[in-house]
Amino acid sequence: MYERRILDEILDKENLNQAFKQVKRNKGAAGVDGMDVDDLAEHLAKNKDEIMRKIRQRKYQPQPVLRVEIPKPNGGVRLLGIPTVTDRVIQQAIAQVLTPLFDRGFSEYSYGFRPKRYAEMAILKALEFMNDGFEWVVDIDLERFFDTVHHDRLMNLVSRKVDDGDVISLIRKFLISGVQINDEHRETIIGTPQGGNLSPLLSNIMLNELDRELENRGLKFVRYADDCIILVKSEMAARRVMRSVTRFIEEKLGLTVNAHKSKITKPNDPDMKFLGFGFFQDFQSDLYKAKPHQTSVESFKYKLKQLTRKNWSVDTLYQVERINQLVRGWVNYFKVGYMKKILGKIDANTRFRLRMCIWEKWKTAKNRRKNLIKLGMDRYNAYKNSQTSKGTTRTAYSWILTTTITNKRLAAFGLVSGLEHYMKVHA
């Protein structure tokens, strides 16, 4: 009787179709071959049989990953790997089959890149531990985790559950496919490029060993991908845990702990940041609560500033759509945090900057006069104010625009209020 192997499940027509749809949904940039997702359907229609034949015969060779640098908000860069769209489909097809196989064995305190698990769940669990008296935080920073994973250790862990040599061979080929940096090809003897569809699962497989070690020691912890915090009840315990867990990570997992970024801290320390959140102690209830960290707020404000540049010559409707996408996404991510006050200030600043943009777009005195009249200003004042010597910033703050381009009119035009959206998701 024919026994269906894991590779057969990966190359199953329905599984490949789902993988193709997911890659299309994710969009993303082209890899080293320059092919983007819009060309993917035609390419696969012509080459799918040949690709599958090569995979079955262990002759398929993934292309190098395109290495790009993404600036971090606090300085430095994150190295991101962009596989070709064809390789993304194959990686996604592998991930779809292997995820259920591995996920059931993962820790309940691991939340990153897992089905039906989200960052907010990790934050709520961290708060639960903090409010149970575990008020010392051991924040261990893994130095360039995705670039330092040891291939043999990782493949050994994968092979414990994947009893199919063809699949093991294929995964290893993705690991050693190399990277392309400025037209130069470099081998990858270690690491799994951050950005590949398979990388999140592989990182969880590797770091599940850390989870199990922490569970065996009876420690309280929360992990989201390579972000992990351990919560204990005293500073002495925190120092002991920092030493012993660092030793385990470096000696047993072969990873590197960044000694400069790893720290022992308290939840309400301004430097304490986990998944973009900070924490504070509410003195009325004496409980720890979450809020967007100041660096997350500053990053959000900077992005809004970029979308409300007065020299950005795009249609206002498109500009508002982009602002709304950013606001909704940010509020939805941080909705478990407390942020009414900051959202009120950000809303006010966004409306001011949008008025500034609109005034700039009206350009001429004649056009400004016509629009001010249309918005209800009498002809005399419209004529006088259309020729104002005030700069754009002062005009946007003044009654000239606050009484014409009112908050109500901006809302009717479609501008989303971050504060109102926050209140709505909490209703």
Descriptors:
427 residues; alpha+beta; four-stranded mixed β-sheet; four-stranded antiparallel β-sheet; 53% helix
How would you summarize this macromolecular structure in one to three sentences?
This protein has 427 residues and is α+β, with helices and mostly antiparallel strands.
Task: Provide a descriptive summary of the structure in words.
It contains 19 helices and ten strands. The chain is of the alpha+beta class and 427 residues long. The strands form three sheets. Strands 2-1-4-5 form a four-stranded mixed sheet, with no helix packed on it. A four-stranded antiparallel sheet has the order 6-7-3-8, sandwiched between helices. Strands 9-10 form a two-stranded antiparallel sheet. A hairpin with a 4-residue loop joins strand 9 (277-282) and strand 10. Helix 2 (13-26) crosses helix 4 (85-103), helix 7 (151-159) packs antiparallel against helix 8 (165-175) and helix 12 packs across helix 19 (418-425). The chain is globular and about 85 Å long.
Map the helices and strands.
Blueprint: H1 6-10, H2 13-26, H3 40-56, E1 65-71, E2 77-82, H4 85-103, H5 119-131, E3 136-141, H6 145-148, H7 151-159, H8 165-175, E4 179-181, E5 184-186, H9 199-216, E6 220-224, E7 227-232, H10 235-251, E8 263-265, E9 277-282, E10 287-292, H11 294-307, H12 316-334, H13 340-362, H14 365-374, H15 379-386, H16 392-397, H17 399-402, H18 407-413, H19 418-425
Parallel strand pairs: 1-4
Antiparallel strand pairs: 1-2, 3-7, 3-8, 4-5, 6-7, 9-10
Helix pairs in contact: 2-4, 7-8, 11-12, 11-13, 12-19, 13-19, 14-15
